[in-house]
Design brief:
There is one protein chain. The protein starts with 8 loop residues before the first strand and ends in an 8-residue tail after the last strand. Helix 1 crosses helix 8 and helix 4 packs parallel to helix 5. About 50% of the residues lie in helices and about 15% in strands. By secondary structure, the chain is of the alpha/beta class. The chain contains eight helices and seven strands; from the N terminus they run βαβαβαβαβαβαααβ.
Length: about 260
């Protein structure tokens, strides 16, 4: 069977670890070539080596998407290395948790600089190529954009902005032939989540496994998600047969989001 993404080229931001890395590996598995990008060059290089050892094609570029010039450079280097851009997955961006009154102006600026403005600038630079190729965009936002909490004032605000941006760009995409959607992951087993579980474990004097069970029970969800859960949905969305899926904000969260 012909791979669904054969001859497609994807940019996946924040692809050195966690959700981004899983997305990159899944797109490679489905036939795409991928530009890996994040700040940690060693991790990116290791992922590229793993991909190429399995017969896949990838390039990598270490940069900081907070810098205004970085997204355009990423597009330029992707074209140089891989020839086209068919898919952009905006995944980069971690926002600081904490009490609202202790979060600084810099914390807020940093939260928007990477996750929101990095995505805005990348789409601005990549859009002509996406338009020519009738490409696809997936923005990885988060459930906090729909159901924010007291420890997630920055993240909830940034994610909400990402969701609004997705809807607006989906409207642009109708005219330009570019598919645009967003995914709202819930609690996913990443390094950041494991840090939260370790903290809970220490505070409660319980094991990591018990802390996870407590988090699941308190959240009223089915389980903690895996990075591959998000990756599988991204691959589904960007497959050519799923172009009718457009402008969707998909909650992939084990039941976290209770609103309609």
């Amino acid at each position: 069977m012909r791979p669904a993404l054969l001859n497609k080229v994807a940019i996946v931001t924040g692809s050195s670890r966690g959700i981004g890395r899983a997305i990159a590996l899944k797109l490679i598995e489905d036939g795409a070539a991928v530009m890996l990008t994040a700040m940690n060059g060693e991790l990116l290089k290791g992922t590229q080596t793993e991909i190429e050892s399995k017969g896949g094609k990838a390039a990598w570029l270490s940069l900081d998407l907070r810098k205004p010039e970085a997204p355009a450079l990423l597009v330029e280097k992707t074209i140089e290395a891989l020839g086209e851009i068919d898919i952009v997955v905006n995944n980069a961006g971690a926002t600081k948790r904490g009490d609202f009154l202790t979060l600084s102006e810099d914390d807020w600026t940093d939260g928007f600089a990477l996750k929101f403005f990095g995505a805005v600038r990348l789409l601005r630079a990549a859009w002509p190529f996406l338009k020519r190729r009738r490409g696809s965009v997936v923005n990885i936002a988060g459930v906090g954009g729909r159901t924010p909490g007291e420890q997630f004032t920055i993240g909830g605000s940034v994610n909400a902005a990402m969701l609004s941006f997705t809807k607006a760009m989906a409207d642009v995409g109708v005219a330009d032939g570019v598919q645009v959607n967003a995914i709202n992951p819930g609690a996913v087993r990443t390094a950041r989540l494991m840090t939260r579980l370790r903290t809970l474990s220490e505070e409660q004097g319980i094991s990591i496994a018990e802390a996870e069970m407590q988090m699941v029970a308190n959240s009223g969800i089915t389980k903690i998600g895996e990075p591959e859960d998000i990756a599988n949905l991204v691959a589904y969305i960007v497959s050519p047969q799923n172009r009718y899926l457009h402008g969707a904000l998909i909650d992939l969260d084990g039941g976290t989001t209770k609103t309609v």
